[in-house]
Specification:
It is built from 6 helices and no strands. By secondary structure, it is mainly α. Helix 2 packs across helix 6. The longest helix has 12 residues. The relative contact order is 0.21.
C-alpha cells in the first residue's frame, strides 16, 4: 500500500513507454474514470450527480498545475468520494491514466 510517507517515484514509466501507449491511458480512463469525470474531464459523467464532492475540471489550469505525483496519489489512493484504485489498477496503469488526463488540458 502506498502512503504519503512511503510514496516513491521509482515506478514512473519512462517517457518512451508513455509516448508509445497513449491509447492505453485513454482506455483506462474510459473504464475507470469517465463515468464520474466525463469524457472530457469536466466532472459531468453519468454518475457525477451521485457524488457529493467536487469532481474537478481536468481541463482547468488550476487542476493541470498539480504535479504528476499529486495527481497519481489522489487518483490511486483516493479520498472522500474518490475510491481507492490500488487493487483495481497497477501503478503503471495509473501513471498511464495520469498521462492521459494531462491531454485533457484546455
Amino acid at each position: 500500500m502506498i502512503t504519503s510517507s512511503n510514496f516513491l517515484f521509482e515506478n514512473i514509466p519512462s517517457t518512451e513507454t508513455i509516448t508509445l501507449t497513449p491509447s492505453i491511458g485513454e482506455s483506462l480512463y474510459s473504464k475507470h474514470c469517465k463515468s464520474c469525470h466525463g469524457s472530457e474531464g469536466y466532472g459531468d459523467g453519468s454518475k457525477a450527480d451521485d457524488v457529493d464532492g467536487d469532481l474537478g475540471d481536468f481541463s482547468s489550469k488550476e487542476f493541470q498545475s498539480q504535479s504528476d505525483g499529486a495527481l497519481f496519489y489522489k487518483s490511486y489512493i483516493g479520498r472522500k468520494d474518490m475510491p481507492n484504485y490500488e487493487k483495481k489498477l497497477s501503478e503503471e496503469d495509473m501513471w498511464l491514466t495520469v498521462n492521459y488526463i494531462r491531454t485533457l488540458a484546455e
